[in-house]
Each structure stands twice: as structure tokens, then as C-alpha cells.
Amino acid sequence: MSGINQLDLCRAYLESATGRGKPTDQGNKPDGPVVTISREAGARGNTIAEALVERVRTERSIPRWHPWTLFNQNLIQCVIEEHSLPQSTSGYLGEQGAGDISLMVAELLGLHPGVYNTARRTAETIRRIARAGNAVIVGRGGNIITADIAHAIHVRLIGSKQTRSNHYALHAGISHAKAVAEIARIDRARMRYLKTHYQTDINDPLRYDIVLNTDRMGDDEASGIIVTALAARMAA
């Protein structure tokens, strides 16, 4: 699916499932179902999430109140639109963000509403999506924000540095040496994001229901394991 189509799907989901002025609960509907995915750089988080959405759409054992929707990079634009933030905020909403000095200068100049406020608003949007259900949320501390939702599965994708850097180099069209440096930088930034906003170690296995080594399985196998776990969680 193209980025434009994905963004349109996210907008439609937010409007129909969590639109402003609408109740978040629908009768006796429980919160969820939702899957959160945390991933090491190059561990194929996006492709596994896409395979998961395609698979879960046909899984009859999992209730469907809304069309299953993937929230990954497009989540940033959804947060901006839902909270009426300036477009200049987009560079500060991601897990990698900008350097600390850049953030402080931009906040002083009024270019964005501040690190705390942007993280809080991101969490509010993630929370609303998770409660509405039928969503796959990639990154941004989704597992921490939705930890109390019973019908949720929290997944961590990992892999060897060699395999991850090979995948990243191929995907980004860069040399292997640059890919090694880049995945290390991204991993550090994601670790810092979780530590800063949620005082949590991103590598703590107790924060997840499933930790998958993507060196040892393809996207379909990984998504199949996640769907089976979600179906079991729903049944329980």
C-alpha cells in the first residue's frame, strides 16, 4: 500500500472509530484488540506489520469492529491533525526526533509545542486507537501506553546486527558500513525515547508478550505467530 493510501486509511479510521465528540466505548465492547510492535532497526518491523494486517483481516476468531489499520510512520501526521499541531512539529514527533539542543531551541522559538506535550499528545492518540481496537501500532512506546488493555499483544522484533544491517542496506540503498552505523544510531534514539518519556528499558523482555528473532523466520511466519497469540488472548 502506498503512503498516501495508508494515511487516508488512518484518517478514516480516526474519524470513524475515535472521532472527536464520539464515545470511545461502544456498548459492551472491550478495549482492543490491538497489536503493538517494538523493533530493532532493520528487523523488518514495517513489512511484518503489513503482513500482520493482511492476515488478521481474514481471521474470523478475532472480533472486527473497524477495518484493521496499520499505524507506523503515518501516525505522526495523524497526531498532528488530531491535535491541530503545526506541521513543523513533524520533525520532533518521531522516535528519533532531533538532537536535544535542536529541540530546546525549536521550543524556545515556538516551532513546536515542547517535548513533553508532543509525547503526551502522541500517547493520547495511541490510547484512543488502542481502545477502539482493530489496529496495529508500530513503535513510540505503544506497549507501555497500552499495557493495561487486556485484548492486546505486545511484540518485540529483534535480529543479529549482521542480518539487520544487510536488510537495512538493501532497503535504504546504502553501503553495508553505512547501514551498520545507521541501525546503531536508530536503536540508540529509540532506546532514549522510551527512557526519556516512560522511564523504561526498550530491551526489557518483560514488557512484551512475544519476542521474535526475525533472523529465523519470514514475514508470514512471524505474522502467523502474532495472530495465533492474539486469537488466544481474545479467547481467554
What does this structure look like?
With 236 residues, the protein is of the alpha/beta class. The chain has one domain (31-235): P-loop containing nucleotide triphosphate hydrolases (Rossmann fold), CATH 3.40.50.300. It is 52% helix and 10% strand. It contains 10 helices and 5 strands. It has helices at 3-17, 45-56, 74-82, 90-93, 100-108, 115-132, 142-145, 161-172, 176-198, 219-235, and strands spanning 34-39, 69-71, 135-138, 152-158, 210-213. Strands 2-3-1-4-5 form a 5-stranded parallel β-sheet, with helices on both faces. Helix 1 (3-17) crosses helix 3, helix 2 crosses helix 10 (219-235) and helix 8 crosses helix 9. The protein is globular and about 50 Å long. It starts with a helix and ends with a helix.
Number of alpha- plus pi-helical segments: 10
User: If strands are numbered along the chain, what order do they take across the biggest sheet?
Assistant: 2-3-1-4-5
CATH class: Alpha Beta
Order of helices and strands: HEHEHHHHEHEHHEH
Rg over CA atoms = 17 Å
Shape designation: globular
What is the CATH-assigned architecture?
3-Layer(aba) Sandwich
- Give the termini distance in whole angstroms: 33 Å
Enter the CATH topology name. Answer: Rossmann fold
Overall pLDDT metric: 80
Helix content: 40-55%
Count the E strands. 5
Entry summary:
The protein has 236 residues and is an alpha/beta fold. Helix content is 52%, strand content 10%.
